[in-house]
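Now for one specimen:
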Amino acid sequence: MAKWLVFVSVLSVAVSVSSRTFAATLTTANLTPNNLVITEYLANPIGITDADGEYFEIFNTTSNSIELGGLVVRDAGTNSFTVTALLLAPQSFAVFSNSDGASLGISPDYVYAGGMTLTNTADEIGLYRQDGMAIHQLIYTDGDFFGAGIAHELDVLDWTTPAIVNGPVSGTDFIAASALLPFNNTGSPGLAGNTNINLAAVPLPASVWMFGSTLGMLCWLRRKAGKVAHLTLEALTHAQQKGFNGLEDTDTAGPVPTGGWPVCFNRIQCR
């Protein structure tokens, strides 16, 4: 029984680990709000044109890779583009840029090439599924609130981050970037920068709990078996002592089996 419990526990943990290791890749059709979060944007670069320096950044908050093909990015007006193909690893950033990023010394993960512009005053960036469900939205009313060339970085990224975040004028969700980029711009595209990321680990799977419970049960069974064995040994020892005393006190011992151990120790016991 004990060996069977160990086998079941180890098997359940192995299945759980393998399922996490080979977790299925999500598609945009599988996404729910905040599976992707907009974490940084630079709407008004300095020293270069907006077309060469604008970018925004998103983060995959899930423990699965996400195929972003089909993701719709748009503002509240007419600007929009649809991602053709991009695989985003779990708990990782992806940078979207209007250009190849050479002017800022960055390597964007996706170039939307004029499909969208980030207005220096008020604008919106929204991430949507093909069916129109919003995954995450950013609304800002001043694209260079901290000064021209300074990117806005999400202050805190955790499980309480709202599905609609606001720029520094409309709310307090974003703070100023401090890492230096070319032409005295600041930002940390593809990195956490000043964002405090606090996404707690996913709770242990039930199989791990089962494994721990089984170990506890095995310890209890072993302890109980040891106690029974101890009591049995005490009983046998007591019987042996009583039997030998009976042989000394009586004239005739009872029948003795082939092994030499008396079955009856005196006449009274053999009746």
Q: What stands out?
A: The two ends are 42 Å apart (CA to CA). The helical segments are 2-21, 50-53, 206-249, 267-270. Confidence is low (pLDDT under 50) at residues 4-22, 203-210, 247-254, 267-271. Residues 121 and 142 are 4 Å apart (CA to CA).
